[in-house]
Write a structure and sequence with these properties.
The complex is a heterodimer of chains A (265) and B (272).
Chain A: H1 16-19, H2 22-38, H3 42-59, H4 63-87, E1 93-97, E2 100-103, H5 104-130, H6 133-144, H7 154-184, H8 194-225, H9 244-263
Antiparallel strand pairs in A: 1-2
Helix pairs in contact in A: 2-5, 2-9, 3-5, 4-5, 6-7, 7-8
Chain B: E1 2-11, E2 21-29, E3 33-37, H1 44-48, E4 59-64, E5 67-68, H2 74-81, E6 82-85, H3 98-109, H4 113-127, H5 142-154, E7 160-164, H6 172-188, E8 192-196, H7 200-203, E9 208-213, E10 216-222, H8 223-228, H9 231-234, H10 242-252, H11 256-267
Helix pairs in contact in B: 3-5, 4-5, 5-6, 10-11
The chains are: A mainly alpha (265), B alpha/beta (272).
The complex binds adenosine-5'-triphosphate (ATP) and magnesium ion (MG).
């Protein structure tokens, strides 16, 4: 059932984006998110479209992967569009539906917000599609490093994320085993009434949690036995390498961001 | 030199509760391979965890290579010297890939990156996992995971390796893999081994056997003598595997030559 799970939605590949340093990608994505929030004219959105589609083209990610990531937020996009379309009262009336009048300004606002959501998801999907979760964790840890002074637990957060990445497949495998065992004992996961299914769910979750706690205890002991001592004086096997092309890529995004700001007026 | 020395060690998990270890006195010499057997709850795990400071004796003291085990800064160094592998292969795999997991101990110890890469290569060779260095844990067999765990201790150049029922969750093939690696490490790299197990076949491979009962080392024999005095074990709740019975029977019938053969067969771990 869970044989071929992939964590996150990383799609291994060898494109320019795949080979970029995770930190560079994080910085670029942050910049692009800012740009997406700043855009508020048609010219602005036109430029954002050209930019993000360009980034998508060099990512080598097939369109269907992008669309798959879009499905869950489709309702949100359509919903916010309708909300703005009906409730904003600016510009001239285009149509009247019952008690509601649709204004041109509303349509425009709705489209802007919908596009904004769309681009946000597109940009962040491109990040997670082209960066392995491990690299993403490392990148995040190193970028949070300067914030340590202000009490941000960079190492601990990264360790937690990496342990989560490591144990998610294990949890799924275990859930599969428990489901089989409980089905053999008469639990109904896929058939039966709502009540029976809820009971079946409980018979899955309780053992799953108990074993997770036992595992956490064992894992803590094993980590201690291997000399884990917190983040102090630790070295890392994984090294991110920042190359010139990473600097260039970030600069291009930054310059485009500034240009867009003037261009859209 | 003495690798481990237990000096009047007593332990209980909570005050007022029963003693789990009571006045244990024993020594392990460098290069020995001690197997601990004994019923559930006899204190095997507790005793082994005294060797790297995961637990500290309530009374008495533990010495590793002559130095007392005490909480504090030096524990980190001690834990490099004393490698420990636990029972459940899945519960000691920390990192998302094999390579990262082997590196975990070295990262804690602050080993520079270039050196890590070299040490990983060597340890992977010693444990035969060169081909799976980039694999994720959920795609490995139990035996492979335990070999990764052993590799993760080897990169810290331990002088003592403790295995707490590290083979008990493995299939016969996995057991054999792990035991063969232990043999190599003992013979070639002269690593002292402390192996907690419920399997008399595995225990017979080492140089010495401790039988623990009620928080004490009830029987302490070198493995050769153990095979000559098996009647001592028979009375305890340790079931004898088939070839051990055979050995006893041959002895009873004074078939010296055959008994010698069976004994060698047991000592070499061919039955595993
Ligand atoms: N964390 C703990 N807290 C309290 N009591 C414990 C704890 N761990 C073990 N004990 C108790 O200490 C005794 C010895 O336990 P230990 O785990 O050392 O036995 P063992 O010989 O390793 O047994 P097994 O063969 O089951 O692994 C047992 O009676 C057990 O109930
Ligand atoms: Mg135990």
């Amino acid at each position: 059932m869970f044989k071929h799970i992939i964590i996150g939605q990383y799609l291994p590949g060898n494109s320019f984006l795949h080979r970029m340093d995770a930190r560079a990608k994080l910085i670029a994505v942050l910049l692009m998110i800012m740009v997406i929030f700043l855009a508020d004219t048609w010219r602005g959105y036109g430029a954002v479209t050209v930019g993000t589609v360009g980034v998508w083209m060099i990512s080598g990610v097939p369109l269907r992967y992008i669309l798959k990531g879009m499905y869950p937020i489709l309702i949100l996009i359509v919903g916010t569009f309708l909300l703005h379309a009906f409730l904003t009262q600016e510009g001239e009336v285009i149509a009247t539906v019952g008690a509601f009048s649709v204004y041109s300004g509303g349509i425009e606002q709705g489209l802007f917000i919908g596009l904004r959501l769309f681009f946000l998801v597109l940009v962040t999907s491109l990040l997670t599609l082209t960066t392995s979760p491990i690299d993403l964790t490392d990148g995040l840890e190193q970028m949070l490093q300067p914030l340590k002074r202000f009490g941000v637990p960079a190492h601990e957060v990264a360790l937690m994320m990496s342990i989560a990445i490591r144990f998610i497949p294990t949890l799924f495998q275990e859930a599969e085993k428990i489901i089989k065992a409980q089905t053999a004992r008469g639990a109904k996961f896929n058939s039966g009434s709502m009540k029976q299914r809820t009971q079946a769910m409980i018979s899955l979750l309780v053992p799953l949690f108990i074993r997770a706690f036992k595992r956490a205890e064992d894992l803590a002991l094993a980590m201690e036995a291997r000399g884990y001592n917190g983040g102090e004086k630790r070295t890392k096997l994984r090294a991110l390498t920042w190359r010139r092309k990473d600097t260039i890529a970030c600069l291009i995004v930054a310059v485009s961001a500034v240009l867009l700001f003037f261009f859209q007026r | 030199m003495t690798a481990v020395s237990f000096n009047h060690v007593s332990f209980r998990y909570e005050e007022e509760s029963d003693w789990v270890l009571e006045d244990v006195n024993a020594e392990i010499e460098e290069g020995e391979w001690v197997s601990i057997i004994g019923p559930n709850g006899s204190g095997k795990s507790t005793l082994s965890r005294m060797c790297n400071g995961l637990l500290s004796p309530v009374e008495g003291e533990v010495f590793i290579e002559g130095k007392p085990v005490r909480p504090g800064e030096e524990l980190a160094l001690l834990r490099q010297k004393v490698g420990m592998v636990f029972q459940n292969p899945d519960h000691q795999f920390v990192a998302p890939t094999v390579k990262d997991d082997i590196a975990f101990g070295m990262e804690n110890a602050g080993v520079p990156r270039n050196e890590m890469v070299e040490r990983i290569e060597k340890a992977a060779m010693q444990t035969g996992i060169e081909k799976i260095l980039d694999a994720e844990p959920h795609r490995l067999s139990g035996g492979q995971k335990q070999r990764v765990a052993i590799a993760g201790t080897l990169v810290l150049h331990p002088t003592l390796l403790i295995l707490d029922e590290a083979t008990s969750m493995l299939d016969p093939q996995g057991k054999r893999e792990v035991m063969n690696i232990l043999k190599d490490l003992h013979r070639r790299d002269r690593i002292t081994i402390l192996h907690v197990t419920h399997d008399l076949r595995e225990a017979a491979i080492g140089t010495r056997i401790w039988l623990m009962r009620f928080g004490n080392i009830a029987i302490d024999l070198d493995s050769n003598t153990m095979l000559d005095q098996m009647n001592q074990f028979d009375t305890n709740d340790i079931p004898l595997p088939y070839e051990f019975h055979l050995l006893q029977e041959l002895r009873r019938r004074h078939c010296k030559e055959e008994a010698g053969l069976v004994k060698r067969y047991i000592r070499d771990g061919i039955a595993l």
